[in-house]
Amino acid sequence: MTNFGSNLMLIRKKRRMTQAALGKAIGTSGDVVGRYERGDITPSIEVVVKMADALEVSVDYLVGRISVDLSEQEIIERIEAISKLSKANQAFLFRLVDMVLRDIIFQKTFLK
C-alpha cells in the first residue's frame, strides 16, 4: 500500500487541482491539505470520502488499496452489469476477456 499523503498529492496534481482548491472543495484550507500530504496529520474517514468525491476517485484508489482509477462511469456501469450476471455467465465473459487480453499482449510482445 502506498503512502496516503503522497498518493493524495499525485492524484490532486493529476487532476490539476491546487491544495487551496481541494481544501475549499472539502471545507478546509489548502494549508490543511498540505499537512495531509506531508503526513503531519491524518484526515478522518469523512474527510477522506470528501477528498475522493472532490478528486472523482474511489476511496480505495485514493488510499492506495487499488491501483486502478475507477472514476470512468462507463467502466463502473459495465462492472455493475457484470456483477448482476449469473456465475456461469460471468465465467463465460471472463474467458472471453482473457482471450482478448492474451491476444493483445501477444501482439504487443511479438508483432511490434
How many domains comprise the coordinates?
Answer: 2
Which CATH class of the largest domain is shown? Mainly Alpha
Beta-strand content estimate = under 5%
Assembly state here?
Answer: single chain
CATH A-level architecture of the largest domain = Orthogonal Bundle
Q: Examine the coordinates and then state which fold CATH places here, giving the name of the CATH topology of the largest domain.
A: 434 Repressor (Amino-terminal Domain)
Which regions have little confidence, pLDDT < 50, spanning 5+ residues?
A: none
| Secondary-structure element string | HHHHHHH
Please identify the structural class as seen in this structure.
Answer: mainly alpha
CATH superfamily of the largest domain: lambda repressor-like DNA-binding domains
Mean pLDDT: 92
Specify Rg, calculated over alpha carbons.
19 Å
Query: Percent of residues in helical segments?
Result: over 70%
Number of helices: 7
Cα(first) to Cα(last) distance is: 34 Å
Q: Please summarize the sheet with the most strands.
A: none
Q: How are the secondary structure elements laid out?
A:
Elements lengths: L3 H11 L4 H8 L3 H9 L6 H11 L3 H5 L9 H11 L3 H24 L2
Write up what this structure looks like.
The protein has 112 residues and is an all-alpha fold. It has two domains: 4-63, lambda repressor-like DNA-binding domains (434 Repressor (Amino-terminal Domain)); 73-110, no CATH class. It has helices spanning 4-14, 19-26, 30-38, 45-55, 59-63, 73-83, 87-110. Helix 1 (4-14) crosses helix 3 (30-38) and helix 2 (19-26) crosses helix 3 (30-38). The longest helix is centred in the C-terminal third of the chain and has 24 residues, at 87-110. The radius of gyration is 19 Å and the shape is elongated. It starts with a helix and ends with a helix. The mean pLDDT is 92.
